[in-house]
Amino acid sequence: MSYQAELERALDALAAKGQTATVAKVKAQLRTSVPLPLIIQAVKSAKANTPLPEMASLDAAMSDAERISQLEQQVADLSERLATLEAHCARS
User: Fold this and answer.
1) Which residue spans adopt a coiled-coil conformation according to this UniProt entry (predicted)?
2) At what angle do helices 3-16 and 36-47 cross, to 10 degrees?
3) Partner of 15 at 20 to 30 A CA spacing, among 4, 61, 68, 69?
4) pLDDT digits (tens, 9 = 90+) for 14-56
5) Any idea of the CA torsion for 47, 50, 51, 52, to the nearest 10 degrees?
6) In Å, what is the CA distance from 83 to each residue of 11, 56, 70?
7) What b-and-e string marks burial along 3-27, b requiring 16 or more CB atoms within 10 Å of the CB?
């Protein structure tokens, strides 16, 4: 299920109860984890009576291993840049 579908389901559940959408109420209606910025965006859209914008699906999220690998690469790149800057500063 996409984030969008999950948020729409939560907003529909609140509307069926006659409740106004708030971040807390939407979050309580969710069956899966949805990033907070998307929940806030959904509440703003609901209050403005506008449709939700396209959002990524739950399956599109990176796996933990992919995310860790990406972060490790970023740390290695930044460490290399730091060493270069330190070497440059030491020569000055």
Assistant:
1) 61-88
2) 50
3) 61
4) 999 999 999 999 999 999 888 898 999 999 999 998 888 777 5
5) -50
6) 50, 37, 20
7) bbebbbebbeebeeeeeebeeebbe
Place of tokens 């970023």: 74
**φ, ψ at 58 (rounded to 5°):** -65, -35
* 3-state secondary structure labels for all residues of the chain: CEHHHHHHHHHHHHHHCCCCCCHHHHHHHCCCCCCHHHHHHHHHHHHCCCCCCCCCEHHHCCCHHHHHHHHHHHHHHHHHHHHHHHHHHHHC
**In the prediction, which pLDDT does 7 show?**
94
State the residue for tokens 């490790």.
72
* pLDDT number for residue 63: 73
